Amino acid sequence: MRTDIIAVGIIALIVGVAIGYFAAPPKVEVVTKTAPGTVTTSTIVTTSTVTSTYTTTVEKPISPLTGEIPIGVLTQLSGELGAWGDNYRVALELAVSEVNDFLAKAGAAFRVKLLVEDTASRPDIALEKLKTLAAKGVKVVVGSASSGEARNIMGYADANNILILSGMSTAPELAIPGDNLFRLCPDDNKQGKAISRVIYDSGVRYIIPVWRGDAWGDGLVEAARKRFEELGGKFLEGIRYAPEAKEFSAEVGVLASKVTDAIKRYGRDKVGVYYAAFEEAITFFTQAAGYPVLSEVKWFGTDGTVLGDKFVTETLVAEFCVKTGGFINPVFAPTRSSITVKVENTVKEKLGRAPDAYTYSVYDTLWLAVKCILAAGKYDAGAIKAVLPKVAETTFGASGWLKLNEAGDREIADYELWAIAMENGKYTWRLAGIYTAASDSVTWL
After folding, report:
1. Predicted structure pTM score
2. Is 407 within a domain?
3. What domain range is 280 assigned to?
4. Of the candidates 95, 232, 186, which has an alpha carbon nearest to the alpha carbon of residue 413?
5. Which residues lie below 8 Å from residue 114, measured CB to CB, with a gap of 6+?
């Protein structure tokens, strides 16, 4: 074969390829994907014979903490827990003022803005309000979400990467490691141990429980039953009612029959009633006062009724409580400090009353959230969650040291024991004793 023919053939092939290239230039596609912390760009080059992909991943710049950072607040300004909601509102107003003053002095480029939502003490409304907050860019919610509310919102909070810091929820069933709920108060397994010791030491060996049938009531009664029976006592068949109940004539009648039977079998001094309720207890007691047998035994309460104003302002209710041994109520005891006194005095000045114990842990929720945002360096739920346990462990707030257990709940707690008494011609709540968890003992004052 002649070499000049081969050469011409090769030149023709090169020219043909070149013509084909410029006649149909390669297809170029740029695809950019973003993920938390990164940007990935893929450049895809396609010719008639070859497809090549070049991928570059670079770190996405983290937005600095500037401007106003929205922090949600879920609290009860109305409904059956509304009597306590104003305490929490005042505490958070104090906290946000202090936090923003602290940020200004530290030279921080951001401030905190509270977006307050009233749950009306209802789990369904709490979920609606959480969705409202999420739509406004909220990644952290603080305040006083109750156990019923927390149970109803946690599925949404976990799915949408929103942190919930509650100073009030105590139900044992919500002590779940790894979820997005952090509680700066102890779960009710600890309260169950405290009230069981109080009841047992009073000489009562047989308890008839009465309780609202929600996450909080169910968990608390079970915790108390378990511990009381470990001590040697016994929980008898009780009465569980719907949380939305407003009238209790039927339940009170059944209870009177149960108490009568128990007294006949075990003796008056050995029988007691354990009542886990919220403000509906006022109606229950008003109706119970019509059955003399119900005031012949000791009654014991919970943190759901402690320090409620109506228990001492409504004479019939107060008289019934005094007849039944003062209706002793436990509530976790904050470690008193200058911070505690400051919050206490602020609530007294604004509302004319002493705050309940959860007011202090609610106040602490905001300070802890902001400290975690500073430690994380960004307003991101995942980053804040990662540092929260260590920040909590090293934080001393209005309620004391905030160290949490593996479930994200307050690790250690003693309990104050409050009872209703007549003093200086008027009914009042009186601090009657302290339960010390370390020694499982009660010191009466």
Report:
1. 0.76
2. no
3. 189-333+415-444
4. 186
5. 71, 72, 73, 92, 96, 366
